[in-house]
């Protein structure tokens, strides 16, 4: 039996909000049509509300979250610059790679997987780098790090925060926390299909834009004229119109519910996963006090699954119940499950269904 209407409880994509799905079917508009420009402006306004920022340069980059990461780095650092990156999972490691490719010196502050970024170690690594970079919510480990503490102590350096798995699901205050550059993705807690990377850039960071960065497509000097042109919009690339309509609708659903209510819903669903999995005899992987609500990382104790392999359990969940959960990455492959409760998925009914299905499979 094949079920195509999955319950998506992996590390992403989540199930999109019905409003976001419906908007994908709206009639096409031209990318310079005043009606589309108004919709893009309103989408950027909604993103400002969700990022809790007044940054003028706030818009969805036309590609997935990884393009947000690349845009956030290539536009600000290059040869001769130093970037201090907190690495406590897969995505911090990717930021090191992107920074190195620009010719910048990247100092990787490595952490044990499952631990949050240690802000004192970041500061000790270099007193005044061009940029400090860290992942707010590490999807590979289910850990939340203290971006606010980094922002309070960063001095004159720029602060870049990867907010792909936090935006819309957990507390995030870009302006209050002194975050200069933050990017996200649509398919995690924002409850929209994958395809866009919401990005916000402070005025301080705009003053430090590299005039001719190593990417043409992601050159913020050029894109800024298209997204904040105030009527004098110049063509840069054809915006993915339908995806922006969908993001607009998804953000509308999120803001109608209320940011605080949506965050509380993510917290309740994440808590229910952790409690239910503990009851089933599993352990929690992420360090206590830094556990992320939208992504629960679950350690599989030796012997808990009997003779059944962990991949087989995930495969049966998918085939028999239409439920997707994620396996572990890198050093925790085969040892950890990652259970997402993001966006429209973050509801008790899905958690209850998953726990019952697992209990059934495990006997
Ligand atoms: C998913 C994710 C990304 C990458 O986003 P894509 O949309 O897959 O390109 C980057 N950082 C974090 C923390 C993520 O969870």
Task: Please give a structural write-up.
The chain has helices at 18-23, 34-51, 65-74, 90-101, 119-125, 147-153, 203-206, 220-227, 241-257, 259-279, 310-321, 348-362; strands at 7-9, 57-61, 82-87, 105-110, 131-135, 137-138, 143-144, 158-162, 181-183, 197-201, 283-284, 295-299, 323-327, 336-340. It is globular and about 65 Å long. The two termini are 21 Å apart. The chain folds into 2 domains: 3-14 and 258-362, Aspartate Aminotransferase, domain 1, CATH 3.90.1150.10; 19-256, Aspartate Aminotransferase, domain 2 (3-Layer(aba) Sandwich). The chain has 363 residues and is α/β, with parallel strands linked by helices. Helix content is 38%, strand content 16%. Residues 12, 64-66, 69, 91, 135, 139, 162, 164-165, 185, 194 line the site of pyridoxal-5'-phosphate.
Indicate the topology.
Blueprint: E1 7-9, H1 18-23, H2 34-51, E2 57-61, H3 65-74, E3 82-87, H4 90-101, E4 105-110, H5 119-125, E5 131-135, E6 137-138, E7 143-144, H6 147-153, E8 158-162, E9 181-183, E10 197-201, H7 203-206, H8 220-227, H9 241-257, H10 259-279, E11 283-284, E12 295-299, H11 310-321, E13 323-327, E14 336-340, H12 348-362
Helix pairs in contact: 2-9, 9-10, 10-12, 11-12
The structure holds pyridoxal-5'-phosphate.
Residues 12, 64-66, 69, 91, 135, 139, 162, 164-165, 185, 194 line the site of pyridoxal-5'-phosphate.
